[in-house]
């Protein structure tokens, strides 16, 4: 007998780490990063984790059903089906939806091929059974602790659709169909739902591993990404709050303060990843660690060396006996404090404080400090994604120059600004861009590849849209 084939509803799963659910948005959680994952992205993620990787099929293999016994077979003879086991799982499908206020529903639709031995009266035969199955599970995330969550199946419903029964001999009665259908309805849910439970928990472990990872940042340190709170569903997306612990080589942590910020609508995007300004500042402090640079002011090092030296000479006070001592000018560049990235609408600027010391080293080893200058730099940041890393490339935007001290009495330095700007652009900026070139490793959120990426900059928030 052939029943009507039930069409599978869309997989209603969306929690994730692997499937989170029924949680209120964690707007009070202070974290460095926030993610919004679309149902379409989750469907791809879960199809890969559960179906394409063979996780479901693997755990259904070896499925053995209880013997089916009944009366009323051929010529009303007793009927028994024994050794009934799973042969093949045909084209399983799943889909993801986030029903607001319910949690996550996971629906898997597939066709199971079963085989066994059938005894009708004294006639023994082989029996093949095809049965369409829809499994719907209500899933919820719970027990958040130290960046991990557990998933719990609160309800699991297994609905059988069309059933086809075939005996090798071709002999079959309607009553055998009824017996098989009733027995399968009574036994399959109790066998399939525990398998779904196991598969979901294994997928949860796999996907949680993408959110809880320690990633090296070149040779200067690491970033430890982990969940900052329970995932939450909004009906339109899965929300994840992550934090990134930025640690220097040697173990010291670079702290960062975070504030809650809302992500924009997903629209047609699969994933939106928001990086908060404070987190980016911690990473910049890790990346930009340039030791003091000391060099002789010559054209080989700095193309404007002669112009800078001439400009400084004109600033010497009248009657300064020590100002004209022989010897080349030396320059020492030192970063002062930590870099600071400022995110504004469609604009990212890195503010950097640099100390510029211009001096002459006498033959006796004594240093004559001609100038100690403070340069406040505003560096324009171009942001890109390369190989799963966020890369900043800086160019000189603005320079503010002030005098800290002078051993020879120089007081007015206004004419030095263009020369110092060129000096820093030629000597220091390439070193900074070289340090930034290794990039900031991004979290591999649910193995969603960062391809065809758009970048948006809002106030205090950098958005990566996939």
**Count of helix runs:** 7
For this structure, the quaternary state is single chain
- Which structural class do you get from the secondary structure elements? alpha+beta
Major sheet size, sense and barrel closure: 9 strands, antiparallel
Low confidence ranges: 1-30
Number-wise, the strands total 20
How far apart the termini lie comes to 48 Å
Radius of gyration: 34 Å
Helicity level: 10-25%
Q: What is the beta-strand fraction?
A: 35-45%
How does the overall form come out from the CA principal axes?
A: rod-shaped
Overall mean pLDDT stands at 85
Could you please describe the fold and organization of this structure?
The chain has helices spanning 39-52, 55-60, 174-211, 277-287, 305-313, 417-427, 429-436, and strands spanning 33-37, 68-70, 79-97, 104-120, 123-145, 148-167, 213-217, 221-227, 232-233, 238-248, 253-254, 271-276, 293-296, 330-344, 347-361, 367-386, 389-405, 440-441, 454-458, 461-465. The chain is an alpha+beta fold and 466 residues long. The strands form three sheets. Strands 1, 7, 8, 9, 10, 11, 12, 19 and 20 form a nine-stranded antiparallel beta sheet that branches. Strand 4 and strand 5 form a beta hairpin. The longest helix has 38 residues, at 174-211. It is rod-shaped.
Any key phrases for this structure?
7 helices, rod-shaped, single chain, disordered N terminus, 6-stranded antiparallel beta sheet
Write the layout of secondary structure elements.
Blueprint (H helix, E strand, L loop, with lengths): L32 E5 L1 H14 L2 H6 L7 E3 L8 E19 L6 E17 L2 E23 L2 E20 L6 H38 L1 E5 L3 E7 L4 E2 L4 E11 L4 E2 L16 E6 H11 L5 E4 L8 H9 L16 E15 L2 E15 L5 E20 L2 E17 L11 H11 L1 H8 L3 E2 L12 E5 L2 E5 L1
